[in-house]
Design goal:
Elements: H1 2-36, H2 57-63, H3 67-98, H4 104-115, H5 123-133, H6 139-163, H7 167-175, H8 180-191, H9 193-209, H10 212-217, H11 226-231, H12 241-261, H13 263-270
Helix pairs in contact: 1-12, 2-12, 3-6, 3-9, 4-6, 6-9, 7-8, 9-13
């Protein structure tokens, strides 16, 4: 009875704590919105809120900077690298999950080791390689580089998810007249959709937020990704913080919306293979 009487208070306490933590995490984003709407002559004022809001910074970043071109480049890079990773990771993950070939563990270990490499430590070699291929300052150089650094994670998550799907389902589909490829597309891939979505969203977000490779491998302002374009707004002697935060809001909104839409698939995909 005493525990039952304490449960409403405990619920209120947990709810208040959850709201407080949510507010703590949302405050930086609220600060971004407030600063983006702050007039230029009030950027150095000590008050948290300006006397009035001026949302013209959202239009000026489109007309006075290369934000539109940077956003287009980022969309092409994130979409292209995600598609390339999916095309390579799916066959590799399916083969490692279904076939017990000699050297399988060594292959998976090699995939894991490549995940430990940091792009920053490989920039000199990457720059020299892409310079030789004549791909510097193009969208292709960013697509290939981002795909290479996100391929290992996609293979691991897809291999774990496909491995959790009973192989008997594919065998039953093959008995019904489907070949191995038909069973893959008609049975395995639909069941592995949460794992595929997880690989897609993590690859897309990683390519969307990438900065170092975009800064090193491209030099034209209109061919650089969004992260580098925002960094270019920070001048040596002055910074229009309302423009910087307006551009930052434009950069984060698509990813936040995308993640919110498919969040349930991401959670189920990350837990794939954890329960046998």
């Amino acid at each position: 009875m005493a525990a039952a009487r304490r449960s409403p208070a405990r619920t209120v306490l947990l709810t208040a704590t959850a709201w407080a933590l949510a507010a703590l995490f949302l405050l930086p984003y609220l600060e971004m919105v407030v600063t983006a709407g702050r007039p230029a002559d009030q950027l150095r004022d000590s008050g948290y809120l300006p006397t009035h809001f001026d949302w013209s910074s959202f239009t000026k970043v489109w007309t006075d900077t290369t934000l539109g071109q940077n956003l287009q480049v980022t969309l092409l890079v994130a979409g292209g690298s995600t598609l390339l990773v999916l095309l390579v990771a799916l066959p590799a993950a399916y083969y490692t999950a279904r076939v017990r070939f000699r050297g399988r563990k060594a292959f998976l270990l090699l995939v894991l080791v490549t995940q430990m490499f940091q792009p920053t430590a490989l920039q000199v070699g990457l720059y020299r390689e892409f310079y030789t291929l004549g791909l510097l300052n193009t969208v292709w150089v960013l697509v290939l580089a981002n795909a290479a650094f996100n391929l290992a994670f996609a293979i691991w998550i897809l291999s774990a998810y496909i491995g959790s799907i009973p192989v008997e389902l594919e065998e039953a589909a093959q008995i019904d007249g489907n070949g191995r490829i038909g069973a893959l597309f008609r049975v395995t891939l639909p069941l592995a959709l949460p794992g595929v979505v997880t690989a897609v969203i993590f690859t897309f977000i990683a390519a969307w937020n990438e900065f170092i490779m975009g800064l090193t491998l491209t030099d034209s302002p209109d061919r650089q990704p969004l992260t580098v374009g925002i960094d270019n707004m920070i001048g040596a002697y002055s910074v229009q913080w309302n423009h910087v935060f307006a551009a930052s809001i434009v950069a984060i909104v698509p990813v936040v919306v995308l993640f919110a839409v498919i969040e349930r698939h991401v959670v189920s995909g990350l837990t794939a293979g954890s329960v046998k």
